[in-house]
Structure formats: C-alpha cells, structure tokens
Amino acid sequence: MGGMSSSLRKPMRNNTKESSFIKELLMGFCLGTANIIPGVSGGTFLLIFKIYERVFSILNKINKVNILYFSACIIKIVFKAKKADSSNIFIEFLRNNDFIFLFKLIVGAVVAIVSLSGVMKYLIIYHFSVTYALFFGLILMSIIIPVKMLKEKKAYLILFVILGAVCTIYVTYAVNPYEKIKKKSEIYEAQFLKNQNFEKKQQDVTAFSFTGKYTLEEYGYALICGAVAVSAMVLPGISGSLVLILMGAYFEVISAISELSTFNWDNLAFLGCFGIGVIAGGLLFAKFLNAVLKRYYNATMAFLMGLMVGSLYALWPFKKSIIMAQQYIKKDGVICIAQNMRIYTNINEIPQMGGQLLFSLVSFIIGCIIMSFFIGKEFRK
Predict the structure, then answer these.
(1) Scanning 81, 123, 316, 335, which has the fewest C-beta atoms within 10 Å of its C-beta?
(2) How far apart, in whole angstroms, are the C-alpha atoms of residue 24 and residue 347?
C-alpha cells in the first residue's frame, strides 16, 4: 500500500504542474486579449488575477546585474562544456527570479495578440461604428475603476481630471486619420507617376524583402508608441490599445501583426521598432510611472480618469467619413490604386436612425455589461 501511495503522488504532482502551466498561459492569453481591445486594461486583469504586485516585482528584477548574469549563462550553455550543468544553473536562476512565470504570461499574451489582430482589423474596416460602440461602452464603464481606487475624494482633483480630458481630446483632434492616409496616398501617387517598372519590381519582391511600406518617421513613431502604450498597459483602468488609438497608430499596429504570416520585412521592422519601444517603456517609463503613482497617487488616478473621459470623444462610434475616389496603397511591394475607399475622420457626427444605430446601441450595451462584470470581479471583497 505504501508503494502504491508513493507511486500515485508523482502523477498527481505532475498533473498539478501541468494545470498550473496551462493556467498561467491562459492568464497571459487573457492579458493579450485585454491589451488588443481598447477599453480593457491589462492592469485590471493583473488585479483580477491577483498577480499585479508579483509582475511588478519581476519587472524590478530586470536590472543590469541580472541581465549580465543572464547573458553569461547563455554564453556558457552555447560555448562551454558541461552544458547540462550550465542549463540547470540557468533554469534555477530563472525560477528563483520568477522569470519563467513572466515568460509564460508573455507567450500567452503574444498568442492572443497574433491570433486576434486579424479579427480586430476586419471589424474596424467593415464594422467601424459597431466596433467603436463596443469600445465606447467598455471605456465608459472603465471610468469607475480609477474613481473606486481613489483613496480620498477632494475638490482639487477635478483639476487633474480636466487636465487629463483636455490632453486626450487635443491629441485626438490633432491626429486626423484621414489626413494621415491622404498624405501617404499622395507619396505613393508621386512614386507611381515616375513610370517605374513596377511589374519587374513585383517579380523581384520575395517574401523577405523591403518594399518601402513605412517611412523612417513611421518607424520612429512606432518606437515611441510602443513605449507609451506599454506604460499604459500596466496601469489599472487604462488600455494600451486605447493609447494607440489616441496616437493614431492602433490600426497600423494590428495590421502589421495580422500580416506577419507574409514574412514581409517592412512589417517585421515596423513591429521590431514597436517591440523595442515596448521593452524600453516597460523597463524605464513604467517604473517611473509606478514611482509617480506611489508619490502622487490620487492626482495620478484623477489624471487617468480624465484621460478616459476625454477618450470617449475619440471613441464616439459615428464619425464623418470621406469617400476617397482613388487611394494609392502599397501591397507586396507594388503600388496599387484602390477605388472609392471610405476613410473615417476624427470629426464626430450625430447618428441617423436606422439599422447601424440599432446594432451600435446593442454593441454599446454589450461593452457596458462586459466591463461591469470585470469591475465586479476586481473590486469584490
């Protein structure tokens, strides 16, 4: 009986490890899903899963000393003898600093972002108002989060709310997606009219090739957007995707992610710049925000509240749209002409009665219900 009992313990322990592994991957998947949907905050999910402090503790361990030790372990595993011993030491180092847990969260998040980016791109292109109505409902209910997290409610905090709202509305007003698309179309049109041999160029384009899809300014802006977005991702109540929408980069980022299967160097370089910004922002700016949050907690929460209130202007589902008779786009290295493309501006309109308004209203209610559920989970005693 004793031998049977001991033999049963090992499979049970293995099952526990497997279930823990799957659970942590699913946590990461939920975080990735949250960060690709504007209005659902990754920081909120960290609180719901009760791992907010744990993740911040891990991020604080990514310092110069640990990075050097990490690099030394990799070098020993690759170039020196006794690889098994070096690997065991490396795994123990990762386990002691909880980096394995962080890695599992990242893997789950990446899977979610890659798998859902195509869906988000499709919804924005073909169901703009309904999709933005969902986002609007999510954000509207999310405002409750920083309100509930305030430790004291004083009149002077209204100033920070107003400041946050003004900043968001100004950024939204300044970044007109139509003007951005029109400018890019004009650049492609000028190239198109140079009578270049595009057919030959199309034959020369391989899967791994640069086609000039992005400008140097766009690569630099992607880096900045990554740094700012990841800083928002770690804060409860505000979404990194919402920040990307306000900065006019959300559609560009999810489009590049959804096209990863083409192995186009333009998309890889664009996402590489964005990823560098994410890493830099995660290690530097996020820590700065955490320090500010500790020192000026209520003012920061009030400012976040203002950002979310102001973002409702950007997420209003009914925008003035302009039909662009000819839009020059670059696809697979070749400049093409798209006919009668509907481009949405940043100018809000009053909706007209009809099916679109009804579907948008239903989508808005669904967004409110979803976020109400998460808020209830987060603040449940």
Answers:
(1) 81
(2) 42
